[in-house]
Structure formats: C-alpha cells, structure tokens
Amino acid sequence: MTGGRFDPFAGSGPRWRAVPAWRPFLEDLAAGVLDWLGDAPPETLTDATILLPNRRAARAFSFALGKLAGERPVLLPQVRPLGDLEEDEPPFAPGELGLDLPPAIAPLTRRFEMARMIAEDFQPGMKPLRALEMADALGAFLDSCQLEEVSDLSRVATLAEQDLAEHWRESARFLGLAVEAWPKRLEALGLVDPAWRRSTLLRRLAEAWDARPPQAPVIAAGSTGTVPAAADVLKAVAKAPQGVVVLPGLDLDLAADAWDRIDDQHPQAALKALLARAEVAREAVQPWFQPALEPTVEARGLARQRLINEALRPADATDDWRREIKALRARSAEAGRAADPIAEGLSGLTVLSVRAEEEAATAVALMMRESLEQRGPDGRPITCALVTPDLQLSRRVEARLARWGIVADSSTGQPLSRMTAGVLVDLGARFLAEPLKPQTLLALLKHPLVRLDLGKTSLTDAAEALEEHALRGPRPRRWSQLQERLLKAAQPRRGGLPLADWKLARLKGAQTLADRLEALATARPCPPDQAARTLTALIEALAGQNAWA
Fold first, then answer.
1. Is the pTM value of this prediction over 0.90?
2. pLDDT band at 1 (very low <50, low <70, confident <90, very high)
3. Each residue of 51-72: b (16+ CB within 10 Å) or e?
C-alpha cells in the first residue's frame, strides 16, 4: 500500500503475489487494478498489459473490471491470453518475434494430413476412421512433447524394451517413424505445428523481456506455469520494473514441512514447481489486494480454506490428525473466534449419495434451480456453478435445466453434433447413405433450418402427407414405390367420390417434395473430397446459406 492505496509494483523485483483459493480471483484482480488506478485519468490503464491463462479468462476479467468500475469511465488495458498469443497482438507487436516462423497448420488440415501419412506410409489399406483415430493420438503426443520442449523425439523408438509385448514394440516403432516423417511433411507444406509455434513465441517473448524488460505495467495473473516457456515469461514479468505475477490459490499457510513434502500428485505441485523454476521462496510471495467482504463470508471462507489445506496435506505429513485439529481450534480461539473452525469450514457442504447418473443429474439440476430462485442480501439473484470432470453429467444437467428455461453457460462449449447446424449435416450425410429410410427422411424434413419452396403447399403439410401415405407400412425400396403410394392415395374413394381439394393439394405437394428429394439423393461411391462437396450441395439446397450462419 502507498498512501492507503494498493500498489502492485511496490518494492524491487521480482514481485510475486497470490490470491487465496477461496477468494473470487478475477474480481479481486480487477479490484486491485482499480485501487491502484485511484484518481488517475481513465486512459492510464491503456498502457498496461494483463496476461491471463486463456481467452475465456480475458473476457471474464474485462467484464469484472467494467462491473466494479460502475459509472466511472475507464479505458480497458491490453488484456491478452498467455496460452494463445500471436505476433499480431501486443505484447508481440509489431510482430518481429514471429517474422521468420512459418504459419501454423490448421487443426483440421493437420488431422487429415496425419491420417493420410499413416494410411499411405505406415499401414496401407487402413480404414479411414482408424487412421483418423491414430492421427488424433499422434497429434496429442506431439503437442505434449512440443509444449514441454522435448529436443530429441527420435528417442521414442527405443522406449519399449525387447521383452515387452508385441503391441508395445509396434507402438514404439510407429511413433519412431511418425516423429521423423511428420516434420518432413510439414516442411513440404511450409507449415509448423500450432503447439510448437506457440511454445516458440513464448520462448522468444521470455528471452526478449529478459534482455529488454518492458517499461509499461505488466500483470501476469492466473497462470500456473506448467509450460516451461510460459513459466519463463512469468519469471521475466516478475523482474520487470513495473511487472508482477499473481498466482491463483497458492497456499501461504501450509506448514513448511508439509510444503517440502509436496509431490507431483498434490494440487499445489504446479505452483511449487513454478516457484522453484523462478528461484523464489514461498515466503517471498505477498498477498494480492483483497476487497472487504462480509465478516461471516470471510470467516467461513478462511475456515474452509484451512480445513481443505489440512485435508490435502501430503500423506507422510498427516501422522497426527488429532493434534492438527486441536492446533486449528487453538489458533481460532487465540484469534477471538468463538465458532469451531472445523464446523465452520464444513458449513454449507453437503454429501449426496445417488444410485445412478440420472439421479445425480436430476438432483444437481434441482439444487441449481433452487439457488437461482433465491436472492442475496443486495437483492440480486444468487449464481451457482457445477464443477465436474464428467462431461456426460454436465450435459444431462444442462438438458434438465433447459426444460425449465434455464440456459447454462458451459465452459466446455457444445459439440458440433448437438448444435443445430451439426444435426443438419449429420442428417444430410445419413440421407445420402440411406435416402429412403423413414426415420432419417422425416427428421431431415422437420429440421428447423430446412426450407423448401413447394408452391402453394407448405413444407409441413407436404411432409405430413408424405409420412401418412408413403412412409407408413413396409419400407419403400425405390423412389418409384413412394410415388406409386402417393398416386394411389390421390385416387377417388369407393363410390367414385373424389378427395377434398385440400387433401389433393397436400398430396400434390408431397409428390413435388418426393421429386425434389429424389433429385437430391444422387450420392455415389466417390473420394472424400467429392463426398464433402456433394454433402455441402445437399445442405445448401435444403437450407440455403443460412445453414452456415
């Protein structure tokens, strides 16, 4: 603090700070930036650079900064994702760091090029789906090696000993050949892997800032430095004249003997490794600015953090739980708190046992709905979040919330197969494979993006007539059978009574629809590129350009 105002750049570098795990990280970060800004002009922040782990965090920080600023006009700083930097954005501008680097290969192009290399060079005759699966595995392996900056990938061929199973030796042989052939394929294309390019840019940024530290304010926040190049960028930021690194959830209260025993499986392992790489002692890390909270909220947060910290102690540092519990209660009593810290830390936590995923999804959705129906002391609705590694569970919960008109903001995004356009593409591919399958045909016609001009008859009426008179009963094998059923349905009834005009109009629309569909069902065995063009033409014929919007 300087004159009662928070100064993140006070003192000489390196500067390392931390936000406790129980605090709202981005809101505390934004509050600290605004407190440091003080009464300075709104444009002061435009010279500052905020580096955050990813684009989602960058958007959330900008929102938090605007929310806390209220009616005060503030020009945003340069907020950049550390994990997805490019040379056309600051701090890389004007682009000199990446001028001599080839462009990165597009992810889809990379996947298919790898699959082609595997099918042509290693296992001729391999099925395309298997080649794509192997390409995905190879790409993930190369990405991890490039992010870790493994210098000699050829050693992978010698990892499997001769006495191991045959499939292990075969996998090692495949990887050994692939890591030699893939760089040659990239060189022929004039491209590089995205992970290698990203790691190289970070490495060059770290070296540039090490040699010429930035003079403008730089705050790197939220990153744990698991990528070596990113860790060196953080190290350079901490040493800059106006640089500071803000660590998320570093445990500053854990006993020194327990901290020394932390292994790779502990939640604090990445932060410990980062501090060791930067040659910074944990005791040198200072707390970040913490806005005032309600006393009850703060007490509960501190108690829960202490409880979780003790529960996550390394196994060989938990020789006497009872002694630690007594020590926690003694420290709480010395601080003048009457509440039991163990009970206070467990307050609000609930364990729910369920028998199946359906019950778990239903229970979670109900609890989230109940939370959203309540309001906090300020009158605003209470928010809630579901944190789970199980994507199936999160999607089940999303589906249940959607029934109540609640749209969940999922950080994992939505797979293309569940989006409106993705469903249309999937149905189009199935239609080309089996154009007369009733389930696929009707699902395609009822898709919300499909628009067909059938004259005076609407698509809905024509599709219903087609379903009622041509698709019920035995499945038609030819388009001529489908037309015969429609013509038979248009014949006069017994006694020579003609059909009503509206029924004849619907049947005529169904005949027109059948003709249009038959003209579109022209798929033949062909190479993948021609199949993709055929599918694209079908989608645009059914839905127009709006399908890609």
1. no
2. very low
3. bbbeeebbebbbebbeebbeee
